Amino acid sequence: MTSATDTAGHAAAATDPHASIYDHGFVRVAAVTLPVALADPAANAERHLEVLRDLHDQQVGIAVFPELSLTGYSLDDLVLQEPLLDAAEQAVLTVLEASEELMPIIVLGAPLRAKDRSRVFNCGVVIHRGQILGIAPKQNLPTYREFYERRWFAPGDDAAGEEVILGGQFAQLTPHGIIQVEDVPGLSLFVEVCEDMWVPVPPSAEAALAGTTVIANLSGSPITIGRAEDRKLMARSASARGQAAYIYAAAGEGESTTDLAWDGQTFVYECGDLLGESERFPTGVRSTIVDVDLDRIVAERRRQNTFDDNRRTHAASLEKFDGWEETTLFGPWDVPDCWDDADEDDEEAPEPILLGGRRRAAQARHDARSAATGAELPALRTPPATGPLRRHHDRFPFVPDDPARLAQDCYEAYNIQVAGLVRRLKQIGGDKPGGTRPVIGVSGGLDSTHALIVCARAMDLLGRDRSEILAFTMPGFATTEHTRSNAELLSTAIGASFETIDIRPASTQMLKDMGHPFGEGEPVYDVTFENVQAGMRYDYLFRLANHHGGIVVGTGDLSELALGWCTYGVGDHMSHYGVNAGVPKTLIQHLIRWVISEGIFDAATAEVLRAVLDTEISPELIPTAPGQKAQSTEDSIGPYALHDFALYHLLRRGYGPGKIAYLAHQAWGDAEAGEWPAGYAEDDRRAYTREEIKHWLTVFTRRFFNNQFKRSALPNAPKVLAGGSLSPRGDWRMPSDAASTAWLAEIERDVPGD
């Protein structure tokens, strides 16, 4: 049976490729704490079902409850009483029967008797659609300080294959059971109970090596001062080392306070990042409901080869995980539920619609399974519409929204750049006055401004006078007085030596010698016209470095390298050392703001830096007629906000354009939703339509592939961000002649444009 909500949700998901998180590598999970009726399993079963019906309506895929959630944890010797154990068994069966109508995979806690009735196990029971998928007994039973669990329970570490009584029948314990969800690629679930995460080698560590991606922990865990942070430390560490998601739910309201207290803490971590947490010491039900990125987990493991090396090291110990239970979150049914209301006489009932690579992959596995078994399995059901992602997603993935985190990142980025330049100068005789000098071209724009203040700080640390920095501005045919003035004012303010070299005569001569129309006075402003100016500037800089015993400090940034927005060879592509090559365009403005706020330079310098921040990004290579808009980089190649968004998710996460577009739509679809980084101007806050996202993602993809040859010949530069670098010796390997066909085909096929 399907509710009206289900039908509408599945119909929406069938028509809109952005309607369901499940089409984009996510699973919605809930860590739940709820008031427990101590020693009253029947009442607790009903409370579970009330919560689960609500979670079903919110399209939650996994719901995790606290340890012994059907009875309460703080029972002491009552847990050995037959009436309590009978009632607990019946409560499991009550939830089991009701689960046939519920979407979530349910993970709840109950004490269950062994087949011989002489032992009791503290179990995490996994239920879905009327089936028991696994029963995970607690493996490590604490008997220290306030804990006495060995008084009541048998340890479950060696209980694989043992049976417990459930509904007059017997069910096997699965301490090493992993549950794979066929129609949610990348989702496999493992359950451990409370103390299991506190031991030196937790069961979940081995389970992660064996392939599980999502770990659930049902916890009792009475609260004392500091324990909440300890729990988070353990879970964060487990999720980071295991490259997994960790769902944690602790007991709370209703537990006995005879000798202990309870705070009902819930949270979810993913690869070491906190996705969400709920209020502690709550009255009533509290849930942490977030969307876990399964693609991220799989990609991190694929990329981190030592993860698999560790699996091979422990291969013998992992053999116990070889039996995986399988289920499907959305079916299968004969046809998708969105067609349940079709006229019975209608012979034209629509076929299931599969959108996106994940559904195609899931269907392929499903078909292969059908062929292998010789049975015609029903079609997979279309995932329901889920609404927006329930997780924090940065508009600027290289720029944290949290002001404290942003300040810390800026501190580290700036000092990485400075330390890199200091080390290079020391190596080539620049560690003493009169030694090798930094030579830099300053335009008054963001990149050269930031590179200059990196040079200034490096000279301070080397004990050299800033006047030994040789700063040159080289106006061309479109240089404005505003930017030229900013370049001079900044160079003078920080104490660098400053000169102006007009490149127009030399550029005109070169264009004339080449037979270019501009050399004869015609206003032809093509790529040759632009690159002659860009190349001329760096030709001068390299020869000036030779002349003065210096090195050219590169100013080009990570975003420009990704897009190939630089003149190859003797142009802004090249330098002796590139300080900005690891920093994306969207971060540089925040670095400059941080330098101002930290008071690293005096007030006069800070004033010029603010003026630079207010200047539109432009190469200033094409002259502008009166009344015309000046040349704008973003008008030419698109918004750096979207390009940096795509770069991060391609470079750091390994995502394809279909998922990048979905995430961009979530992050950039509404300017009023979500957070913006500190200091980001109100006037610059805008949204992008799906059409704009698709267009600029296509531009990014083409440019990224077509310009790899420039990145293959990069000068030295330090990696700055965990998000990655594009150095051919560092973070990125790619052939220069690779085709972008598959990526562009995915954009055309899977990315909506309206």
UniProtKB/TrEMBL annotation:
Pathway the protein acts in: Cofactor biosynthesis; NAD(+) biosynthesis; NAD(+) from deamido-NAD(+) (L-Gln route): step 1/1
Active-site annotation: E67 (proton acceptor), K138 (for glutaminase activity), C194 (nucleophile)
Residues that hold L-glutamine according to the record: Y144, S221, R227
Entry binding sites for ATP: G441, V442, S443, G444, G445, L446, D447, S448, T555
UniProtKB keywords: ATP-binding, Ligase, NAD, Nucleotide-binding
Pfam families linked to this entry: CN_hydrolase, NAD_synthase
Cellular component GO terms, alphabetical: cytoplasm
Entry's EC annotation: 6.3.5.1
UniProt-annotated binding residues for deamido-NAD(+): N531, E560, W565, C566, T567, Y568, K710
This protein's record includes keyword Repressor: no
Class of this enzyme: ligase
InterPro entries registered for this protein in UniProt: C-N_Hydrolase, C-N_Hydrolase_sf, Gln-dep_NAD_synthase, NAD+_synth_C, NAD/GMP_synthase, NAD_synthase, Rossmann-like_a/b/a_fold
CDD domains per UniProt: GAT_Gln-NAD-synth, NAD_synthase
Superkingdom of this protein's organism: Bacteria
Catalytic activity annotation: deamido-NAD(+) + L-glutamine + ATP + H2O = L-glutamate + AMP + diphosphate + NAD(+) + H(+)
Family: In the C-terminal section; belongs to the NAD synthetase family.
Protein task: Catalyzes the ATP-dependent amidation of deamido-NAD to form NAD. Uses L-glutamine as a nitrogen source.
HAMAP family xrefs: NadE_glutamine_dep
Protein name per UniProt: Glutamine-dependent NAD(+) synthetase
